[in-house]
Amino acid sequence: MTLVTDLTSRKAATEAPLIDPLAERWSPRAFDPEAVVESEQLRTILEAARWAPSANNSQPWRFIVARRGTAAFASLHGAMAGFNKEWADSAAVLIVNIAETVDAEGRPRPWARYDLGQAVAHLTVQAQHEGLHTHQMGGFDAQAIHEAFGLDERHEVVSITTIGALGDVDRLSDVLREREVAPRQRKPLADFVTVGE
């Protein structure tokens, strides 16, 4: 396996041309622990999520935004599991991605998770366009997050997004560094696309 040494550009070898923020997006673990995401930049990233499509325009996404150095950030970092806890404290921002699975009248929102996923994808692409990087995480204690932020049963913590600037890969453990510099790979389109005739 050939390892990548220049992590500043890991543009994907796509089968069709993509816009740069999609082709250049990847999920680093080495974030710069001194970098700051400016307020206007963060607002723009969240605005991209705001304009994602959703079923019946229900917009069932909710976000908890925590900057490095705050009590909220420390609480989220404490709720992380395994490897995530090892590296995520260097990110500039943590965003908890929450699906409102039941509306205010008690009616189920069956597409809430899907809609949240679209909002997070929009957020991710906008962050890449802004010159930042993101990494999505699923390893965390959802109940601890519920308790820390007073969430009710209508709200499901689905994932956490880290946002920041690239950092020094040599600060990672050997296991994480190996993952960080490994070549990017995707299945070919033919493996998962069926075109009806």
Description:
- The protein has a single domain, classed as NADH Oxidase (3-Layer(aba) Sandwich).
- It has a 4-stranded antiparallel beta sheet with strand order 1-2-4-3, sandwiched between helices.
- It is of the alpha+beta class and 197 residues long.
- The chain has 7 helices and 4 strands.
- It is globular.
- This is Oxidoreductase.
- InterPro entries: Nitroreductase, Nitroreductase-like.
- Belongs to the nitroreductase family.
- Keywords: Oxidoreductase.
Gist?
With 197 residues, the protein is of the alpha+beta class.
Helices and strands in order:
Blueprint: H1 20-23, H2 39-50, E1 61-67, H3 71-78, H4 82-87, E2 93-100, H5 112-129, E3 133-137, H6 142-149, E4 155-164, H7 174-181
Antiparallel strand pairs: 1-2, 2-4, 3-4
Helix pairs in contact: 2-5
What labels describe this entry?
alpha+beta, 7 helices, 197 residues
Individual helix count:
7
The spatial strand order of the largest sheet comes to 1-2-4-3
* Span of the ends, CA to CA: 39 Å
What is the assigned CATH homologous superfamily?
NADH Oxidase
Largest sheet: 4 strands, antiparallel
Helix content: 25-40%
Oligomer: single chain
Percent range for β-strand residues: 15-25%
Radius of gyration: 18 Å
* Shape assignment: globular
Total number of distinct structural domains: 1
Main CATH class = Alpha Beta
Q: Do you know the CATH architecture? A: 3-Layer(aba) Sandwich
Q: Indicate the CATH topology.
A: NADH Oxidase
GO molecular function: oxidoreductase activity
Domain Nitroreductase: 23-68, 82-164
Keywords: Oxidoreductase
InterPro entries: Nitroreductase (IPR029479), Nitroreductase-like (IPR000415)
